[in-house]
Amino acid sequence: MASSLLEPPHPAPRKIVHVDMDAFYASVEQRDAPDLRGRPVVVAWKGKRSVVCAASYEARQYGVRSAMPAVTAERLCPQAIFVPPDFTRYKAVSRAVREIFQRHTDLIEPLSLDEAYLEVTVNKTGLPTATKVAIAIRQQIREELYLTASAGVAPNKFLAKIASDWRKPDGLFVIQPGDLATFLPPLPVGRIPGVGKVTETRLQQLGIRTVGDLQTFDLATLELHFGRYGSRLYELARGIDHSPVTPDRPTKSISAEDTFEHDIPLFQTDDLIRRLAEKVWTASRRESRIARTVVLKLKTREFNIHTRSHTPPTPPSSLEELTAIALDLRDRADLGPNRLFRLVGVGLSNFRDIEPQPSPSKQETPAPRPRLEPNSAKYNGVSR
Known about the structure:
By secondary structure, the protein is of the alpha+beta class. The chain has 14 helices and 12 strands.
């Protein structure tokens, strides 16, 4: 009885592979600079405001982790070699990895530059099992790109992601549908996607520390304590995840931000806003859809975040127009003349399909710098 409850009620189990590149940014740096191999590499700008983008496994042995302040990483590993990130190069390598994926399936859902879900229930190379597909992908990445990747194979995305982390680095782990009754119960609940520190604390207050503990709670009780997420917890505890692999998910937003070496007043942010707007505009030109909303993000020296947005009657049609709107949002932020800021960001959101426009009857004159109507600036979160 217990075994049947733990098996996902799916008519034909899918074959999902989750591929996760090992210490991706740091591994690219070590690959391209032989003198860095075997040494603790931290991909980050040095400075009080910088954070770690990636750390090699040699640096991780000292406790260095991604998103850690660079000064903390330097204290934990004084011999670390700091390398400034080169995202143009990382994106090029990521595209090469994607080309390898595409030899095997068109059902690819990228999560970031260094990881993706692949559905290989039916694969393009005729390999008999998903495990053989994962082996082939890892071998091709190693032989062609001189990098390593870890992979997880499972009947759904939830389990495949757990599996890919099971034997990192450079590992492969397979979870079969029949393994769920023994594999899931001992897992800490923190391994469940979406269970962060706050949710984990709430679960522990209910006496739930493992997935096995979670399986003893009925659906109504979990929904009472966690709302709609309670239903998700109930299913994941039983290995159930019907979410599809969704190729090329539509872009929700594009943004760029930068942290200052020293806190500065708003009026000194002109040049940075212009540079960030240029980055965002260049990235948006690669999209097949168009953004309607311009977003400005500001973080004060006290770490308070203020976000302003404006949706003009027509989408920004040029870098100049995007920059003008961002500067107007900055000018109208009204956060006090003496306030100092540590970060500024510019973004585009509210992407929509491009609608055919009638041909203009006459040459349009360049639009003046747009002005916002009173109260048109509003708080609006930006999501990726």
